[in-house]
Specification:
Layout: H1 4-28, H2 44-49, H3 57-69
Length: about 70
């Protein structure tokens, strides 16, 4: 019979595996070189640092600010 610690360990492991799978999928997706919000080119440095990025740094900052205000 599994105790609470065993069940918690399984839940944590499953969550970790799901998170890693999502990140791997994002990292392997082809990225567009244009920002989804403003249409300008995403700088190469940002695309290298965050290959999954769909927005430039400025637009991402705006998205994050709006998300914080919505809380």
């Amino acid at each position: 019979m599994a105790d609470n610690a065993d069940r918690a360990a399984v839940t944590i492991q499953q969550s970790l595996e799901a998170t890693l799978a999502r990140r791997a999928k994002l990292a392997t997706q082809a990225t567009n070189s244009e920002c989804d919000d403003c249409g300008y080119e995403i700088p190469a440095e940002r695309r290298e640092a965050a290959p999954w990025a769909a927005t430039c740094i400025e637009c991402q900052g705006i998205r994050e600010q709006k998300a914080r205000q919505g809380r």
